[in-house]
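Field notebook, page 466. I keep forgetting to write these up properly, so this time I am using the form the group agreed on. The chain and the ligand, 6-O-phosphono-beta-D-galactopyranose, are recorded exactly as supplied. Prediction of the bound pose follows.
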Amino acid sequence: MNNSFLWGGATASYQCEGAWNEDDKVDSMWDAYLHEKGLENGDVASDFYHRYKEDIRMMKEGGQNSFRFSLSWPRIILDKEGTVNPKGLQFYHDLIDECLRQGIEPFVTIYHWDLPQYLEAEGGWQNRATCDAFMHYARVVMKEFDGKITYWTTFNEPRWFIFNGYFIGNYPPECHSAQMTVKGAWHVLLAHAMAVQAFREEGIQGKIGIVHSYTPVDGVDDRPETLKAMRYADNYCNNWVLDTAAKGEIPQDMLDKLSAEGIDLSFMNEADLQIIRNNHVDFLGLNYYSRTLVKPYTEGETTLIVNNTGKKGKGTSKTIVKNWFEQVQDPDSEYTEWDTEIYPKGLYDGLIRAWERYHLPIFITENGIGCYEDVSVDCVQDDWRISYMNDHINAIMNAMDDGGDVRGYFAWSSFDLYSWKNGCEKRYGLVAVDFENGLCRRPKKSYYWFKDVIESKGERVERRKL
Ligand code: BGP
């Protein structure tokens, strides 16, 4: 790995900042939703808002040279009229300046799911006006922090928050509608392209990309019907985000299939399509947790279930998309307690495919394993995380050896934080946060292992051909 390779951890505003109502911040859709339901929430989370200096110091001491975090829209823009909150901007100036002082490259996500509730109340991502509001917000932050940031990304994981919010219903606004899913997806793609347009118009320094929840698709065999199911699955999982952001092309066979199944696409007007066609990203951010293994569709209604129970097999996570494909589990693979397949080879395969298809620089913007861990000890001996990270960094190095242009790796997450519907007990951090005892921070064994890997420029990784 050369010296410019970015090594760091990633976080998201709602998952770590806490301070949910401080310094004039207004509610996000997650604040409103979790408060109303009385569920575990991010009111305090890791209290990063007050402890960012300590956290950044630990990143520096851990040898890291970059940090991926998101800006909180409801901290920065206070109302539908677009009023800017100077205290919100100041917090991010302080955070970014601290990163720069410590030699940590800030890698910024503009939107990581915390939509202001005042926009959700007007229809959220169902409403075209949210795209204009996003463009305004993106323009404000890009101009404000211009010159301090080299790597901007518009959205974190459009697929994940749109499918979960509008189809699966485990995220706000808890809908179950294919029509709303497609319309929400369209508005996010459009808002993304509008922000890229604003970036170019304003002549902002640096590069702009998007972050995708990348799940490379494999088939159970190579029969023609399986290959067809794989193409449907790839459109569903990846292409609608990546083809659109990288090439300005929404997959036509996907649109045809959606129309044939009765989805009304009349909201896709020509003027907006032009914005999408003309505004491409400079790089791709790929979050990799696992692949999608598929077989041809056999029977049943569309069923999407995500395991938020933390009991292996009990959440019966399932993906059947009627007339498209069915996802299956590989009996030979290992799975986490949340039914996520551990499959480093998928990262190698996915990197090669993404590189061949888009020829854009790639950052692995998230990769990590969620576990139950006892953090009352001095140093969590998380050998499972070390082995997981080793095998995935090895996959990246193999892909680079075979021509892939990978420029950075961000572990999810820099420190323990709130894992959406899984609460704080699903831990991903390199640093333990003791949520029960004053939120004190203690590096885990993986933090020191990662430091060695970074200092050795990857030499410390145990290599193996996949
Ligand atoms: C990604 C998100 C993150 C993070 C991570 C782990 O989809 O970008 O915000 O949460 O996945 O997922 P989870 O917390 O659901 O286990």
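OBSERVATIONS:
- The mean pLDDT is 97.
- The pocket of 6-O-phosphono-beta-D-galactopyranose is lined by residues 12, 15, 156-157, 160, 213, 287, 366, 370, 412, 419-420, 422, 426 (CB under 6 Å).
FOLLOW-UP: compare against the apo run.
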